[in-house]
């Protein structure tokens, strides 16, 4: 019996073949994470920073020599991000959580990284940072936070400051609105931005406590984050429904709050009627002193 392909007309057959080839190519670029996590045939002594591949599609990874890992803390649904220079092994940790300090320290040790800076994107209200305690366990580690946060840290960040690690760096964008001390951090080639609580995936940070201002937040996102390239990957401090990342282009087009006018946005934000974070009364005072009261 003739196959289905042999019964279609030549033009249709060519189109079908083209589509199948495209599907095969795309599936090879975006294979399941467990298949792309390590290279087959690599021996046990291989450098993990060189053999570990990014968990997202390779066509999205444009920073050469940059190691990246996204980590998750389930109680507060917080993402922690580890970045390192493959050559020098200098590293930066973004938004570490006290409950996962042992996990983070173990990973840093296993990968042979030298952690230069642990930075908080703002003074968190839903969890306590681990930066202060981590400083007592890693020689030379410095903490960082915005100078407008009111918090204690070794490095107080301002607009356009650079956090360097090896040949790479993160550029600081001041993005207040959720709090006065919110910053977003942009990778040197503008392929990734870590937005803290300012811009979330199809959402944004609340503005009803800690100097919150919907007007400021709207301006921060549109004037700072939304001016980055469409393909720039957005990595927020939280996600509550299992999404790992987005892009600037997606959020500019599909974010249900930020596609509205300023007046509509302010009205939405002023009427969220959310309960206050469960740990706000202990988290904010602790985070004002780098996560531990004696620092």
TrEMBL record:
What Gene Ontology terms for biological process does this UniProt record contain? Answer: glutathione metabolic process; hydrogen sulfide metabolic process
Q: Where found?
A: Mitochondrion
Q: Which InterPro entries match?
A: Metallo-B-lactamas, Mito_Persulfide_Diox, POD-like_MBL-fold, RibonucZ/Hydroxyglut_hydro
Per its record, the protein catalyses: S-sulfanylglutathione + O2 + H2O = sulfite + glutathione + 2 H(+)
Mind listing the GO molecular function terms for this protein? Answer: metal ion binding; sulfur dioxygenase activity
Extract the Pfam families matched here.
Lactamase_B (PF00753)
Per UniProt, the keywords (alphabetical) are: Acetylation, Dioxygenase, Iron, Metal-binding, Mitochondrion, Oxidoreductase, Transit peptide
Which Gene Ontology cellular-component terms appear in the entry? mitochondrion
Origin: domain of life? Eukaryota
Mind telling me which PANTHER family this protein's record contains?
Answer: PERSULFIDE DIOXYGENASE ETHE1, PERSULFIDE DIOXYGENASE ETHE1, MITOCHONDRIAL
What family is reported?
Belongs to the metallo-beta-lactamase superfamily. Glyoxalase II family.
Could you give the subunit structure recorded for this chain?
Answer: Homodimer. Monomer. Interacts with TST. May interact with RELA.
Protein name (Swiss-Prot/TrEMBL) = Persulfide dioxygenase ETHE1, mitochondrial
Organism of origin is Takifugu rubripes
| Encoding gene, per UniProt annotation | ethe1
